[in-house]
C-alpha cells in the first residue's frame, strides 16, 4: 500500500526548479513535495524503515566496543592497534559514502543499498573468521564501506520526499529511530559476549545486514524515478562541483566533521577508560554507553523543536559553547581527582549538546541541494566520518595508553574549538537565510 502511494506521488511530482538550481534557503516559495500527501501512518512506516536502514552504520561501529579488551587479549596487540580497527571502519564508511551517494543520484536509491549491504555481509563473515589483526583490519574497512549505503540513501530518500520544516521533522524522527542503535548496540554487544567469544559480534552484524537487504527489497520503493535521473544529465564531477560551490555547505562540512570528531574521540577512548581506570565490566560499560546515547537522542529531538523558532546556525553556535565548557570541565575534574562522576556527568552534557548539532548540520547541508541529495549526503557523511577517523587516534597518542580522561577531553575541546572557528569564519551565521 505505502509503496504504491509513494510511486503514484512521485510520478505526479514535478520539481519547481531545475536540477542545477535549488530554492534558496530563505525563499518564501512553497514548493509541494511528494511526501506531503502521505498519511501519518505511512510517514511513520517510512521513518521506521529508513531509520532502521541508517542504523546499520552505528551498529557496525558501536556493537563491538565492549569487545575491545577481549580483542586486545586474544589477538595479543596493543590498545592503539585495536583502536585502529575502529578508525579503519570509519574511514571505510567515509569512502563508501563518496561512492554510494553519486551512484544513487545516477541510478536510483535501491540498487546501491543492496550492493553495498551485500559487501557488508561478506565483510562481517570475514571479520568473524579473522585470526590476526591485519585480517581484522581489512574486513573492518570493508564493513565500513558496505555500511555506507544505508545512511546516505536513507537521507537522500527523505530529501526526495520532503522539504522545509517537514524535512526537519522527518530527519529528527528518523534520527530518533537511528539514535536507538548506539544505545542498544553496546548493550547487545556486551550480552553477546556473555554467550559467545568476540566473533559472535560479527556474526550478528552479518545477520543484521541480511535483514537490511530483505527489508529494502520488500518494503522500500524507488524515490528517484527514471525521468528525474535523466533530467539532470550531470556527471559525478559536475554534481560534486555544484554542491561544493556553496560556501555554507563547505562550512557545514567542516563544522559537522569537527562535531563528530569530538564525539568519536569519546567512542574510541571510552572502552579502555571506563573498563580500565574506572573499573567497569563489559555489562556496566554497555549500560553507561546506553545512558550516554540517550543524551544524543534527547539533544536531537529538542533541537528539532527549537528549530521552529531559532535558525539552525544559532542552535549550533549555542551548542558548541556548551560542548567546549563541558570538555574543559572534564579536564579540570580529572586533574582534581574527582573520579568517575567527575567525568561521567559533564560527558553526558557534552554528548547531549552534540545531539543538538546533528539535525542542524543535516538541514543546512541538504536544504539547498535537493537535486543532488545523494551527493550532498555522501560528502557530508564522508567528511564527517573521515575526519573523525583521522582525529580519534590522537587520544591514544596523547595518552600513551589510556589511563585518564584528560587526553580524550583535550581532543574533544580542540575539535569543538575548531568547529566553532569554522562556524563563524566560513558559515557566517548572520549570512544564513531564515528557514522557511
Automatic annotation (TrEMBL):
<feature type="transmembrane region" description="Helical">
    <location>
        <begin position="248"/>
        <end position="267"/>
    </location>
</feature>
<keyword id="KW-0813">Transport</keyword>
<dbReference type="InterPro" id="IPR005829">
    <property type="entry name" value="Sugar_transporter_CS"/>
</dbReference>
<feature type="transmembrane region" description="Helical">
    <location>
        <begin position="135"/>
        <end position="158"/>
    </location>
</feature>
<comment type="similarity">
    <text>Belongs to the major facilitator superfamily. Bcr/CmlA family.</text>
</comment>
<feature type="transmembrane region" description="Helical">
    <location>
        <begin position="81"/>
        <end position="99"/>
    </location>
</feature>
<feature type="transmembrane region" description="Helical">
    <location>
        <begin position="201"/>
        <end position="221"/>
    </location>
</feature>
<keyword id="KW-0472">Membrane</keyword>
<protein>
    <submittedName>
        <fullName>Multidrug effflux MFS transporter</fullName>
    </submittedName>
</protein>
<feature type="transmembrane region" description="Helical">
    <location>
        <begin position="405"/>
        <end position="427"/>
    </location>
</feature>
<keyword id="KW-0812">Transmembrane</keyword>
<dbReference type="GO" id="GO:1990961">
    <property type="term" value="P:xenobiotic detoxification by transmembrane export across the plasma membrane"/>
</dbReference>
<feature type="transmembrane region" description="Helical">
    <location>
        <begin position="379"/>
        <end position="399"/>
    </location>
</feature>
<dbReference type="InterPro" id="IPR036259">
    <property type="entry name" value="MFS_trans_sf"/>
</dbReference>
<dbReference type="InterPro" id="IPR020846">
    <property type="entry name" value="MFS_dom"/>
</dbReference>
<dbReference type="Pfam" id="PF07690">
    <property type="entry name" value="MFS_1"/>
</dbReference>
<dbReference type="InterPro" id="IPR004812">
    <property type="entry name" value="Efflux_drug-R_Bcr/CmlA"/>
</dbReference>
<feature type="transmembrane region" description="Helical">
    <location>
        <begin position="287"/>
        <end position="307"/>
    </location>
</feature>
<dbReference type="GO" id="GO:0042910">
    <property type="term" value="F:xenobiotic transmembrane transporter activity"/>
</dbReference>
<dbReference type="InterPro" id="IPR011701">
    <property type="entry name" value="MFS"/>
</dbReference>
<feature type="domain" description="Major facilitator superfamily (MFS) profile">
    <location>
        <begin position="43"/>
        <end position="431"/>
    </location>
</feature>
<keyword id="KW-1133">Transmembrane helix</keyword>
<feature type="transmembrane region" description="Helical">
    <location>
        <begin position="345"/>
        <end position="367"/>
    </location>
</feature>
<feature type="transmembrane region" description="Helical">
    <location>
        <begin position="314"/>
        <end position="333"/>
    </location>
</feature>
<feature type="transmembrane region" description="Helical">
    <location>
        <begin position="111"/>
        <end position="129"/>
    </location>
</feature>
<feature type="transmembrane region" description="Helical">
    <location>
        <begin position="170"/>
        <end position="189"/>
    </location>
</feature>
<keyword id="KW-1003">Cell membrane</keyword>
<dbReference type="GO" id="GO:0005886">
    <property type="term" value="C:plasma membrane"/>
</dbReference>
<feature type="transmembrane region" description="Helical">
    <location>
        <begin position="44"/>
        <end position="61"/>
    </location>
</feature>
